[in-house]
Design a protein that fits this description.
Pfam families: HATPase_c_2 (PF13581). GO terms for molecular function: protein serine/threonine kinase activity. This is Anti-sigma regulatory factor. The chain is of the alpha+beta class. The chain has a single domain, classed as Histidine kinase-like ATPase, C-terminal domain (Heat Shock Protein 90, 2-Layer Sandwich), CATH 3.30.565.10. The protein is built from four helices and five strands. It has a five-stranded antiparallel beta sheet with strand order 1-2-3-5-4, with helices on one face. Strand 4 and strand 5 form a beta hairpin. Helix 1 runs antiparallel to helix 2 and helix 2 packs antiparallel against helix 4. The longest helix is centred in the N-terminal third of the chain and has 22 residues. It is globular. The N and C termini lie close together (about 10 Å).
Length: about 140
């Protein structure tokens, strides 16, 4: 199953995003793991608004896609920002990020929640953040 949603670049859209996401929670999937994915989705969306789209109008779209298979949950978040090298940035972050640090905590969090994390230019312009979580067996 693949579903998608397009939102404006506005943090007020976060509630609608999470309501949409939670409609698709598989009945037998552990709640704790789903909440971690919800947190990752919220972090990815807020990063797109705050960083990728910081100089763009609120009308700039952010598209989110959720894909559920028997063995994988995948989230994709498309933005229209400049992009950056996520893996290099993650490698340059200190092992311990101070509470009052300017940034980096969210990216480190994403890397610990999901099994695969990437941020690449999209064929249609902009960038795509991909978050993948492998699951033993997903009934939907």
């Amino acid at each position: 199953m693949v579903v998608s949603l397009t939102l404006s670049s506005d943090l007020n859209e976060l509630e609608a995003l999470l309501e949409w996401f939670n409609r698709y929670q598989p009945p037998l999937f552990p709640l704790e793991e789903w909440l971690k994915l919800e947190l990752a989705l919220a972090e990815g969306f807020t990063n797109a608004v705050r960083h990728a789209h910081r100089d763009r109008p609120k009308e700039t779209p952010i598209r989110v896609e959720l894909s559920l298979t028997q063995t994988m949950i995948e989230l994709r978040i498309w933005d229209q920002g400049q992009g950056f090298d996520l893996m290099t940035h993650l490698q340059q972050l200190p092992a311990q990020i101070a509470v009052d640090a300017e940034g980096g905590r969210g990216l480190r969090l994403l890397a610990t929640i999901v099994d695969e994390l990437s941020y690449r230019p999209s064929e249609t312009g902009g960038n795509c953040l991909t978050l993948r979580k492998r699951v033993a067996h997903l009934a939907h």
